[in-house]
Amino acid sequence: MAAAVVRTARLELRPLGREQAERILAGDRAGQHWSPGYPRQDDRDVARMAMRHDPSADPWFGPLQIVERETGLVVGALGCFGPPGADRTVELGYGVAPEVEGRGIATEALCALLDRVFGTGRSAG
């Protein structure tokens, strides 16, 4: 089962697949709808995680790209560093391009991710 795109008022959170991860790691901007400040070094780290992630085994806890719905530009990335551990905690990471900082993009994306994580039942107490 593949993870679905998560939509918010202004954003789409799209699973970061192998092809996109390869482009990020190669610095291949040709034909990409990336914000000028994307990808950052942290996004390259997320791309490396995406190359190791098996969405068929764990679709809900892989890396996601943050896309502005209005412009279609990828402005950042976020995700869980894997499913909940034995202590039932999940570590999250996120980052946005400098030009969209201060607009609530990261907050909106994180709220949507948390809704998805808690909605899976995998992190329920």
UniProtKB/TrEMBL annotation:
Coiled-coil positions: none
Domain of life where this protein originates: Bacteria
A cellular component annotation (GO) from this entry: cytoplasm
Pfam families the record matches: Acetyltransf_3
MF annotations from Gene Ontology: protein N-terminal-serine acetyltransferase activity; protein-N-terminal-alanine acetyltransferase activity
Signal peptide (residue range): none
Domain N-acetyltransferase: 11-125
Classification via SUPFAM superfamilies: Acyl-CoA N-acyltransferases (Nat)
InterPro entries assigned to the protein according to its UniProt record, in alphabetical order: Acyl_CoA_acyltransferase (IPR016181), GNAT_dom (IPR000182), Ribosomal_N-acetyltransferase (IPR051908)
Matches recorded under PANTHER family: N-ACETYLTRANSFERASE DOMAIN-CONTAINING PROTEIN (PTHR43441:SF6), RIBOSOMAL-PROTEIN-SERINE ACETYLTRANSFERASE (PTHR43441)
Official protein name in the record: N-acetyltransferase domain-containing protein
